[in-house]
């Protein structure tokens, strides 16, 4: 049975740089990230286990959104008018979020980014459950990071474990945590 170990969310309009400085402060690459990547990174920091930065082959990272990297693609398009910014182009793939989380935390499990038409807890739960089909995956950091603009986003994540303590990971409890 899959259980929810922890839940984290970042309210829309949050000053992400202030949140980073207050809670993390030691990862300069943060300032090169697009908004979606910053959101995923900060959610992962909220859900991180102690001790930190020990390699884990049993943790998957799955992120979901509707807009993918569209917000950053718009910023990049604006620079094309004058001179394309390679710094913006680097973050134009949704899977950069999962990669940054995996690299920072030394997670070597599955990493996947899904762009869905809309948030659907049943699809979200089914794809997370699918990640646990192998014998290796014991936990997953999974979240919804949807960035419509730099100050208009939806961001929440769960740390889900196989046979852990906590609420069952199902659509009812996904919604229940979102109401917090």
Structural key phrases:
6-stranded mixed β-sheet, 7 helices, 180 residues, alpha/beta, Peroxisomal Thiolase, Chain A, domain 1
Compose a concise summary of this entry.
The chain has 180 residues and is of the alpha/beta class. 37% of the residues lie in helices and 25% in strands.
Question: How would you describe what is shown here?
Answer:
This protein has one domain (2-178): Thiolase/Chalcone synthase (Peroxisomal Thiolase, Chain A, domain 1), CATH 3.40.47. It is globular and about 50 Å long. Helix 1 (16-23) packs parallel to helix 2 (35-47) and helix 6 (121-131) crosses helix 7. It starts with a strand and ends with a helix. The chain is α/β, with parallel strands linked by helices and 180 residues long. It has 7 helices and 6 strands. Strands 3-2-4-5-1-6 form a 6-stranded mixed β-sheet, with helices on both faces.
